[in-house]
Specification:
The protein is mostly helical. The chain has one domain. Strand 2 and strand 3 form a beta hairpin. Helix 6 packs antiparallel against helix 9. The longest helix is centred in the middle third of the chain and has 34 residues.
């Protein structure tokens, strides 16, 4: 396993797609505090440290599947993966060496964003409004969410030989998860009564009497939408970005989904006929 991980890491650090995404991650970490400082100088707007920090989640939700698709998919295209099996490496070692390597890659991308943001933001931005403990919990939860996304991406890519097809399917799945999670958040935010609507009376617009909101989620159904919000990527990112995250449930669901994706991914990979 160690030799496989070393070889995979060597290939990862030479992968052009990963290098480009790494540079972009670093530049994003530099740009975000600079933009906050610019707003302070030009528009006298106060930007605290956590403002905009968690935007990296939305960006990485697209960058990580792209990086995984190119890196792992290249092993299919070049026959590297098949050769590992032929020389005697077990499929479980091959699968999880890729997974561990991709998790390390995700950690590197996060660090490349976090370090410059921390250094520049500490000097250019105002002190945090939220407690340091809360910020750390939000950040650790973000890492678990991205680890779960990495596990999902690896599971899809290692089940499909074509790099183009695997990347397309991965992006469709990720975008669908982003949309469904966001819809769940919006549904839970719907008020029970609509109070700000207007109607025409005697040729004048007047405020109408409050009336029930047909989109309001009833108490008996709210747990379903709350489950979707806390367990699906879009809902998780929305909560963390808004700093309104139930970090316990989001972290728990991320770990569970990561384990499930890894298990299913290995089962599919183990049954795959490598040509």
């Amino acid at each position: 396993m160690r030799k496989l991980i070393r070889a995979d890491l060597h290939n990862l650090f030479k992968d052009k797609t990963f290098l480009i995404i790494s540079i972009f991650s670093f530049m994003l970490g530099v740009l975000m505090p600079l933009m906050g400082f610019k707003n302070k100088i030009m528009y006298d707007e106060i930007t605290v440290f956590e403002d905009g920090f968690f935007i990296f989640l939305s960006v990485f939700a697209l960058l990580i599947p792209t990086s995984v698709s190119f890196f792992v998919g290249k092993s299919f295209d070049w026959g590297t993966l098949r050769n590992k099996i032929c020389v005697g490496h077990s499929r479980i070692n091959v699968y999880f060496s890729f997974l561990i390597t991709c998790l390390i890659g995700t950690t590197i991308l996060i660090a490349l964003y976090f370090i410059p943001y921390l250094v520049l933001g500490s000097f250019m931005l105002e002190a945090m409004d939220i407690p340091l403990k809360a910020f750390i919990l939000f950040f650790l939860t973000s890492i678990l969410v991205l680890f779960s996304l990495t596990a999902l991406s690896v599971a899809i890519v290692e089940s499909i030989e074509s790099r183009v097809v695997s990347m397309a399917i991965t992006m469709v799945v990720v975008i669908a998860l982003l949309m469904v999670g966001t819809i769940a958040v919006q549904m839970l935010m719907e008020p029970e009564m609509i109070t700000n609507s207007m109607t025409m009376m005697d040729g004048e617009f007047v405020f109408a009497d409050p009336y029930p909101n047909p989109r309001y989620v009833k108490e008996s159904q709210r747990w379903i939408w709350e489950l979707m919000r806390d367990s699906i990527l879009g809902g998780q990112i929305h909560q963390i970005t808004a700093l309104e995250c139930n970090w316990v449930s989001v972290s728990l669901y991320s770990v569970i989904s990561g384990i499930i994706c890894s298990f299913i991914g290995y089962i599919l990979f183990n049954r795959k006929d490598l040509k």
